[in-house]
Design goal:
Blueprint (H helix, E strand, L loop, with lengths): L2 E7 L13 E6 L2 E7 L3 H7 L7 E5 L11 H10 L6 E5 L3 H11 L8 E5 L7 E4 L3 E7 L7 E7 L5 E2 L1 H7 L3 H8 L4 E3 L2 E3 L5 E2 L5 E5 L9 H4 L4 E5 L7 H7 L4 H11 L3 E5 L9 H8 L5 E3 L5 E2 L5
Parallel strand pairs: 3-4, 4-5, 5-6, 14-15, 15-16, 16-17
Antiparallel strand pairs: 1-2, 1-18, 2-3, 7-8, 8-9, 9-14, 10-13, 11-12
Length: 304
């Protein structure tokens, strides 16, 4: 089953050097979840041939423009494309008022239902679930209310071990019983179902947008497969990072190491950096499996 993150925008504040503003798509099976929606997001969706009709939930981290100013344009495009399905938007308080004002003064009536869910950016709590994932808010610390998001796959159905089929020479009927969750009775010996089946590991993705270095998030993201963490500056500019309540690449890597993350994606790059390899190199000095996110690339991580 698919589980990967496609990066749409990596720059902070303003677009630069061909980099757009914050936005990502998490693909789980056939469901697409849009995370942040900076200016130009719908262009990137088109550029990378993403099926926008499969986006039914949007998660906005905070109300600085580089994280949501692409939203109204995207909503309008959905409308012009004849969307009918309900779209649910999660964000800290205030976004509905902003969107409603645009629709009101543009005299625009959407042909689909728009639902807003207000996220308490001070709490770690489940805010959404469907048949594939559970989503939790992650309290971050920035200049305004900001929430990260943790996506966790729901448990997979148990699969029968092909080695067990051969070992016990199972019949079709016995295989059906095991798949149904039953123990297996062979020659008056009961073999537990969990000795005959296995469950694929649940995968997870944590999105930590604008924030200072914050160890209080570590319990929420322990052992996450893919961690996205903002890395606006290199560590020689730590004073600027603290002043504007951002993180450095070194700090992002420290969070990845302490949380035992599988893979670290860096983003939200300052426009002072034409090349992002300097941020990647800095992060790798602490956490080797670090990558400066590249727009249009999809990232996954499989545990052994």
């Amino acid at each position: 089953m698919q589980f990967h993150v496609t990066v749409l925008g990596t720059n902070s504040a303003i677009p630069a050097f061909g980099r757009y503003l914050s936005a990502q798509i998490l693909t789980v099976q056939n469901n697409l979840y849009l995370i942040d929606c900076g200016e130009g997001t719908q262009f990137r969706i088109r550029d990378f041939r993403i099926k926008s009709s499969k986006i039914n939930q949007i998660f906005i981290s905070h109300l600085h423009g580089d994280h949501y100013l692409g939203l109204v344009g995207l909503l309008g495009s959905f409308n012009l494309q004849g969307r009918k399905k309900t779209l649910t938007i999660f964000s800290p308080p205030g976004l509905q008022e902003i969107v409603d004002a645009h629709l009101k003064y543009g005299e625009t009536k959407l042909g689909y239902e728009l639902k807003f869910i207000v996220v308490d950016a001070t709490q770690y709590q489940k805010i959404f679930e469907d048949k594939l994932v559970e989503v939790f808010s992650i309290p971050l610390k920035h200049r305004i209310a900001t929430s990260g998001y943790l996506f966790k796959e729901k448990p997979h159905p148990r699969n029968i071990d092909s080695a067990a089929i051969k070992k016990f020479n199972l019949t079709v009927e016995q295989i059906k019983q095991v798949k149904a969750g039953n123990d297996l009775l062979i020659a008056d010996t009961s073999i537990p179902n969990n000795k005959l089946t296995y469950r694929k590991k649940r995968r997870s993705f944590a999105y930590c947008s604008d924030t200072v270095y914050l160890e209080s998030i570590l319990p929420f993201i322990q052992n996450v497969d893919i961690l996205y963490h903002e890395a606006t500056y290199t560590d020689n500019l730590r004073e600027a990072a603290e002043r504007y309540m951002h993180s450095t690449a070194l700090q992002a890597a420290t969070i990845a190491k302490k949380s035992n993350a599988g893979k670290l994606l860096l983003g939200h790059f300052s426009s002072r950096y034409e090349k992002t390899n300097v941020l990647e190199d800095e992060a790798r000095s602490v956490f080797q499996n670090s990558f400066a996110a590249i727009e249009g690339e999809s990232y996954t991580y499989n545990k052994d």
